[in-house]
Amino acid sequence: MLEINNLNVHFGVIHALKGISLKVEEGEIVTLIGANGAGKTTTLRTISGLKKPTSGTIFFNGNDITSASAQDRVRMGISLSPEGRRIFSSLTVLENLELGAYLRRDKAEIKKDISIVYERFPILKDRRKQAAGTLSGGEQQMLAIGRALMSRPKLLCLDEPSMGLAPLLVQEIFDIIRDINQKGTTILLVEQNASMALQIANRAYVMETGTIPLSGTGADLMRSEDIKKAYLGG
Fold first, then answer.
1. What is the pLDDT of residues 159-175, one digit of tens each?
2. Tens-digit pLDDT profile for residues 114-154
3. CA-CA distance, 130 to 110, in Å (whole number)?
4. Which residues, in sequence order, are CB contacts of 71 under 8 Å at separation 6+?
5. Is-contact 46 17, C-beta < 8 A?
């Protein structure tokens, strides 16, 4: 579904991504793990079209999208739930969800998809007229994921969905991610909680200072002594 080849990204003189290559197959959960500053968020922003690469290629469903705009990538089926949630605080929960469907014109289907989001996140239905900025951290994360789903993505990119959440909520968010995947959405997950991410991932890539030195199945990396020492507290 997604194929990145020899991708390089710069921020001025800083070489943020150094020739990385990765694949995400349809139906998978693939996770990127690594320390802060490794390049995980930059990778997702580049896939989503929010950052232009210096060189390299990005293919999605067989099409070269390297030069495509962020808007066109949403139309093609790529959606991002960003780090820090980035909800529109002064707008209501419902208005945030409607903005997730801003490129769509099928009003009846949009209404149906909002109902599906409410089924998945009942608390959002209860809070639908409430300003999004008044939600708890966990509720805001649910809203960010729900908003990303409103574009009906084929590939959902999730950037640090468990950040700042209590352990009980972390488990709930990961259960939701697994459920979204089982219902047919492919997922590319960036996550600091490496243990949880590897438990649900089909495959994983380890990022270090803009490179990918290691990849494998989630289960294989869970068993790796180097990974245990570096990321799993073992």
1. 999 888 888 888 989 99
2. 999 999 999 999 999 999 999 998 899 999 999 999 999 99
3. 20
4. 49, 103
5. yes
Q: Which domains occur in the chain, in start order? A: 2-86+153-231 (3.40.50.300)
CA distance readout (Å), 173 to 114, 156, 160, 167, 183? 19, 14, 11, 10, 15
| Distances from the Cα of 98 to the Cα of 10, 89, 146, 151, 230, angstroms | 34, 14, 10, 10, 41
108 contacts: CB under 8 Å, gap ≥ 6: none
Q: Model-level pTM?
A: 0.92
φ, ψ for residue 150 (rounded to 5)? -70, -15
